[in-house]
């Protein structure tokens, strides 16, 4: 059955006006064209909807039954067009994104403020999770995009690098490291070390790099969240390493932070989305907000001049 919205609209206008001449003016069709439109609709539905004489126009019983249905179809059609137009113009809608906790607690709040100033009618849902979960949320389509470390080559995902984030040493205030400007990995490994739990990709990457420098990785305590590591360090449990994005968060927890070298370890941070799926208008606006925020702000924590070459990132 091939019925068009144009045919349904023509039928409703004719039925309401009870005049082909008036209906022609309202739908901007000539009388022959309007007659053909109604005839094609009747043929598609299987019978007459209107009874016409030289002086009168009336609905058949089938036409009377179809009229409220046709009106509802037009209303639903117009509402659908309005809804999709609102989504494109971002006058309404919902956007779900994911961000690893180091980014969510440092740079993302400024992005959200700017985004909501420009698009106040978009309802934001932010998943603050570990980097591995960001990848899985994006891959599974539960969020449109995420911010995380480079997950490496993925056929189904696109990674857009924003900046490179180096790791830094964190330790409780009053520790012997307080007098040092820089700390080496070997010095850290001689202390009670708190590490991210396996199978954290960040931990695996660090272990790989240290192995290349013949430095043994030994973790006495493990945790799943960087915030938990910070609390443990602050309490005096031990020392650890975190991305420089976490510096403000670590200092708020009363931890001390130092540059980490020999080797310096860094990972790209960027936007992640599915390769074969286009971003919605709301998600694309968020992508542009994140990129623009990075270009304009260039936070010191992620733009420090390195004294040495950063270790190449894991591919």
UniProtKB/TrEMBL annotation:
Q: Which Gene3D superfamilies match?
A: 3.40.190.290, Winged helix-like DNA-binding domain superfamily/Winged helix DNA-binding domain
- Is Hydrolase there in the keyword field? no
* Highest rank taxon of the organism: Bacteria
UniProtKB keywords: DNA-binding, Transcription, Transcription regulation
Q: Does the keyword Ribosomal protein apply?
A: no
GO MF entries: DNA binding; DNA-binding transcription factor activity
Q: Name one GO cellular component term.
A: cytosol
**What Pfam families does the annotation carry?**
HTH_1, LysR_substrate
Q: Where is the HTH lysR-type domain?
A: 3-60
Family, per entry: Belongs to the LysR transcriptional regulatory family.
Please give the name of this protein.
Answer: Transcriptional regulator
Q: What is the lineage of its organism?
A: Bacteria, Pseudomonadati, Pseudomonadota, Gammaproteobacteria, Cellvibrionales
In the UniProt record, the gene name given for this protein reads dhcR
């Amino acid at each position: 059955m091939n019925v068009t919205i144009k045919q349904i609209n023509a039928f409703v206008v004719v039925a309401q006006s009870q005049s082909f001449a008036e209906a022609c003016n309202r739908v901007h069709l000539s009388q022959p064209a309007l007659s053909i439109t109604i005839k094609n609709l009747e043929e598609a539905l299987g019978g007459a909807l209107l009874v016409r004489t030289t002086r009168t126009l009336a609905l058949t019983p089938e036409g009377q039954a179809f009229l409220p249905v046709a009106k509802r179809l037009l209303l639903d059609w117009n509402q659908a067009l309005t809804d999709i137009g609102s989504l494109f113009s971002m006058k309404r809608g919902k956007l779900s994104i994911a961000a690893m906790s180091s980014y969510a607690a440092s740079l993302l709040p400024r992005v959200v403020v700017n985004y909501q100033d420009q698009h106040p009618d978009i309802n934001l849902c932010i998943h603050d999770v570990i980097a591995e979960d960001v990848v899985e949320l994006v891959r599974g389509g539960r969020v449109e995009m995420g911010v995380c470390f480079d997950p490496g080559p993925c056929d189904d995902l696109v990674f857009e690098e924003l900046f490179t984030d180096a790791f830094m040493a964190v330790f409780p205030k009053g520790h012997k490291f307080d007098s040092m400007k820089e700390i080496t990995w070997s010095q850290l490994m001689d202390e009670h070390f708190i590490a991210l739990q396996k199978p954290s990709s960040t931990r695996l990457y660090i272990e790989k790099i240290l192995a290349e420098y013949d430095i043994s990785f030994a973790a006495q305590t493990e945790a799943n969240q960087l915030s938990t590591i910070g609390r443990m360090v602050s309490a005096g449990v031990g020392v650890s390493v975190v991305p420089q994005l976490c510096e403000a968060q670590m200092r708020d927890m009363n931890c001390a932070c130092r540059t980490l070298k020999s080797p310096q370890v860094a990972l790209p941070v960027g936007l992640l989305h599915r390769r074969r799926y286009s971003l919605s208008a709301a998600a694309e606006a968020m992508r542009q907000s994140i990129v623009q925020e990075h270009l304009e702000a260039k936070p010191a924590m992620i733009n420090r001049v390195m004294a040495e070459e950063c270790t190449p990132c894991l591919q």
